[in-house]
Amino acid sequence: MSALPVLVLGGGIGGLAAALALARKGCRVRLFEQGTEFKEVGAGIQLGPNVYRMFELLGLTQEIERWAAHPENLIMMDALTGEEVTRLPVSGEAFRQRFHGYPYGVIHRGDLYQVLLEACRAEQGITLHDKAKGERFEAQGERVLLHLAGGERAEGVCLIGCDGLWSRVRAQILGDGRPRVSGHIAYRAVLARAEVPEDLWQNNVVLWAGPKTHLVHYPLRRGELYNLVAVFHSDRYEEGWDVYGDPEELRRKFEHERPEVKRLLEKINVWKMWVLCDREPARRWSQGCVTLLGDAAHPTLQYLAQGANMAIEDAVVLAAYAELTGFDWEEAFRHYEDARYKRTARVQIMSRYYGDAYHAAGVVRELRNDILAPVPGAAPDFEGVAWLYDGIALPRANT
Ligand SMILES: Cc1cc2nc3c(=O)[nH]c(=O)nc-3n(C[C@H](O)[C@H](O)[C@H](O)COP(=O)(O)OP(=O)(O)OC[C@H]3O[C@@H](n4cnc5c(N)ncnc54)[C@H](O)[C@@H]3O)c2cc1C
What is the mean pLDDT of the chain? Predict the structure, then answer.
């Protein structure tokens, strides 16, 4: 293995997972984060059984389970009529058995981030640098130079761009312009359990689907908190994840919806806002010994709740190929891309379809409700989500 370190740009969930997965394979890693400290903004993250398998491979399951909550069902409600459209029971034995013994969980972003960060800090091979903004890279044969703001440079054997939706590494490799602005805005907030009216509290991930809107809520941190995400269509556009939202705009967008929805929205005075963007799937996102991971490679709308799950899967697959190819980074990145592009593209594309279904109006809304209506007496059908929750085949020595 080269004496030079692996360079990771971006210290989000994807960057930390990549650093950890590679350190566990014996690599020395330098990770650069532009923020003044290592922290995660935002509220809840849903964890499919597919990512629980990754936690197991990374040795993180016990720590994750200290913080995660386990909802009983994923439920879709019609926000105009209050009728239940469909539900998927995700806490019973049937679900676990179908998905190889792995559960469905929800976790506060900060808690997931902290688990990854602590695991990275415990690894001798990882050096974390904050206030370190990457500007561009220069590939020079079997090494890469990363130029940082302020004039510093870091030299590595390869570079993994985990720098999110607005990735500079992607701009240099693919040059495919700005992300696609979906016209959907997410407002998010967290309530303490005591602030949630008793009749509106439930241990389920509930999605209230309304015309051009939806509201999702679920308990977090073993039930101490209640996570709310309200999404609506809007032309307003500002970049970023941490801008304050306008409660009046929210009230207007949901004014024709069920009282349960409006009562929850009224509980919150301060909302943070996300402008939701994605990109068209790419077939290739590596160039020599430089590659991308997580949102930098395949940014997705959040309607399948899988962006962070995909970033963690990426990290485990990339590390597996690194080891398998004897740390021939160019070859490892080619295999990694081949293994990941279709799965992540499916998440990107299906997320858009799910968004359309959640936000359907008129006859399309009625048809959605008919199509998704449960068959009386039938056992829960998990096959519709099996492509996602079954997870991935990991590379073996003979692939
Ligand atoms: C409303 C909403 C709900 C979601 N819910 C879920 C969910 O339930 N489940 C799920 O799996 N996913 C969910 N996601 C998606 C998930 O948040 C993202 O897919 C995930 O955070 C991507 O991680 P990342 O590390 O690739 O990118 P990011 O989290 O964007 O991290 C990128 C990091 O790189 C740093 N950086 C950027 N540029 C530079 C630079 N030039 N130099 C140095 N550092 C840089 C940034 O500061 C940041 O720390 C949701 C997203 C949204 C918007």
Answer: 94
